[in-house]
Amino acid sequence: MEIPVYLFTGFLGSGKTKFIQDALEGEDFNEGEETLLLVCEEGELEYDPEKFYGGGSNVHIHVVDDEEDLTKEYLADLIEKTASERVIVEYNGMWGLDSFYNSMPDGWMVYQEMTFIEAPTFLMYNQNMRQQVYDKLKTAELVVFNRCVRNDDFSDWQLSVHKICRVANRKSQIIYEFAEDDIIMDDIQDPLPYDMNAPVIDIGEDMFAEWYRDINENQDNYDGKEIRVKGRAVIDRVPPGTFIFGRHVMTCCVQDIQFAGLLCKWEGSTADWKNGEWVKIRATVKVEYTPVYEEEGPVLYCKAVGKVPPADPEVATF
């Protein structure tokens, strides 16, 4: 049986409880389905089930005190005991989202993930707890900044938080709420830092992270395009006539540095290369199936490859 999950994340005091309370008071979101409400963080505001639409008898509230309690067995048992048809989760802002995703029983499907952020404290949280902030933004479909203030600094503040959100997640919608009926949508455009219409698209050293993310998210836009870009060549344990081209990328902080690479096909010799050699390639992108990806993806057919000095800095960032 498929169990829809509505996941609400954000730090303490960000407005999660109020939003869920208001939603369950409405007929549109609460049509009488047996609902398991998992409360993983208790703030000053408490739920008032009597105000839920229909009196609240269909909503089963369970408090989860410890992150370690999130297990598949525990959650499956709660569903069985309450005979719930769906799950609403008010998640603890200090817990990693992977703890919840890894503990979801078979059949649980996240239908919607929303992150709530108290606007006046966001930049401070991001500066002091960047990893936790990134964790809540990376998979959210909707990010709600509430308690926003209209003043002379709002445009600069909005641009700063927009950039932070976009580094974590290119596809989320962003809303700024000033009052209950006073909201605006984020409409800041994010142009790519290179010319997609150039005969050869030059990817600067400081553009690699943005390019790598975009070519994976919008691979069809690059099909047939010719690119020129610098990176490292991994030649260990790859099929003959190929190498993996990429760079180490830091998305949020040092702890999340990972090698981001794509498959290259190259008829030239790599016999005198060292593993991880810095090279600059000129290649045509073809979107095709390859066993290396086990799915369709961008493959770089190299026309020219030359050794070059390392990028500065060697780790790419957004």
Brief summary:
This protein is an alpha/beta fold and 318 residues long. The protein has 7 helices and 15 strands.
For this entry, give a set of tags.
5-stranded mixed barrel, alpha/beta, 8-stranded mixed β-sheet, 15 strands, 318 residues, elongated
- Please give the number of β-strands: 15
Report the C-alpha radius of gyration, rounded: 24 Å
Give the helix level as a range of percent. Answer: 10-25%
Question: Which residues sit in consecutive blocks of at least 5 with pLDDT less than 50?
Answer: none
Task: Write structural notes for this entry.
There is one protein chain. This protein has helices at residues 16-25, 72-82, 97-103, 122-128, 130-137, 154-168, 208-217; strands at 3-10, 35-39, 59-63, 86-90, 108-118, 142-146, 173-179, 182-185, 201-203, 226-234, 242-250, 258-265, 277-290, 295-307, 316-317. With 318 residues, the protein is α/β, with parallel strands linked by helices. Strands 3-2-4-1-5-6-7-8 form an 8-stranded mixed sheet, sandwiched between helices. A 5-stranded mixed beta barrel has the order 10-11-12-14-13. A hairpin with a 4-residue loop joins β13 and β14. The longest helix is centred in the middle third of the chain and has 15 residues, at 154-168. The radius of gyration is 24 Å and the shape is elongated.
